[in-house]
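Practice set, problem 2.
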Amino acid sequence: MITNATLSKAHSAAPAVSDIRDIKPPLEISSGLAWLWWTLAAIAVVVLAAFLWRWCQRRKVNVPIVPPVPAHVRAQQKLAAALALLGQPKPFVTAVSDTVRTYLEERFDFRAPERTTEEFLRELSSTSLLVKEQKESLGSFLASCDLVKFAKYEPGEKELRELHGAALRLVEETKPVEVVNPEFRTRETK
């Protein structure tokens, strides 16, 4: 038989075990409206993104598009600027020659700047984009430029002005012609 004395001995002999635990904090029970707030926030973000996108698109439309400067206008501007180098034959001739070669490349898609004069004139002879007189004028122009650039020829101011005039004539003769189309009342470029 078990008496109280036996039980008290058993409790005192056994290590003390804690059979009482601390109280857990209360659990938060979400209301049924939390999903509604998250949904409204997501919709607000989407609407804001849509307004920002439309605003950016409108700003792009309002930016004026500047048309590119035509090749003949750029060439004329560069030739006018080259006149400042008239007192220095080699830099002047280099500027005028490079301007004409760049113009021909932009206007007719020739690979003029990367080629020697002979290679360029050979390609030019097989094309019908320039008339015979223009090809001959260009050939003598480039030969005169090569004399100054590579053979150390020092031309006078009169010869330099003639080279400049030949370059301007070539640009003027080969620039695109604007044709007014009476049917549509628009301008077309040949």
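Problem 2, part (b): a different protein.
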Amino acid sequence: MTEQAGLFDAEQLRVAPATDEPGLTPGAQMRRRQAAAIATGMHPLSLVAGNIRLHPAADQPTEDDHVITGLRCGGCVFYTRVGGHSRTYAKCWAGRTVTPIPRERQTKFGPKVTIREPRTSHGLATDLRRWWPACRQYEPKEPA
């Protein structure tokens, strides 16, 4: 029996967990992952909200000169400030749908609509940055 134990050596199947550089804070690790997503043509929200590609006209800033050109999330109609407790947080409302509930299915104090926001959560990972390159759902804001 001891000869058969070597057939399935578990050490060969072990995979080391993916770790970021030691000593980085969780926020710094998240910013590195977001920068890597931008470098590969993905929007930083794609890390948590699915496959979101960058807009073709959103030029990517380089690390050398930090020049930001092209379309940015801050100029999009879906860039929204949402209030929460004593602060406001920037979120993306692209893909947001509001569906009315039929009157016969409403409760006395229940909501009159169902809201689905696929790119938002109550966490830091879905907070939007104005300077991020725009995604393909970008729509420019109307001039004030």
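Answer key, part (b): The first helix runs from residue 10 to 13. The mean pLDDT is 80.
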